[in-house]
Amino acid sequence: MRVRVDPLVCEANGVCVGLAPEVFDLNDDDELEILKPDVPAEEADRVRHAVRSCPKAALTLEE
């Protein structure tokens, strides 16, 4: 599974960071960084939840 962000849509609300901090982070410029674009199996459920919870629908998954 691979997760991606559309930087033109993302508002860096940080919902995903709160739900899956091992995969997502906000940098010093308040831009979303994906720490693990190839999602480890043990993080898959949390990342799916984070993608569904994104208030701007800026995250996508490729399974």
From TrEMBL:
Keywords: 3Fe-4S, Electron transport, Iron, Iron-sulfur, Metal-binding, Transport
InterPro entries referenced in this protein's UniProt entry, alphabetically: Fe-S_cluster_ET
GO molecular function terms listed in the Swiss-Prot or TrEMBL record: 3 iron, 4 sulfur cluster binding; metal ion binding
Ubl conjugation in keyword set: no
Co-factor(s): [3Fe-4S] cluster
SUPFAM superfamilies: 4Fe-4S ferredoxins
Family annotation (Pfam families): Fer4_13 (PF13370)
Protein name: Ferredoxin
Upper classification of the organism: Bacteria, Bacillati, Actinomycetota, Actinomycetes, Streptosporangiales
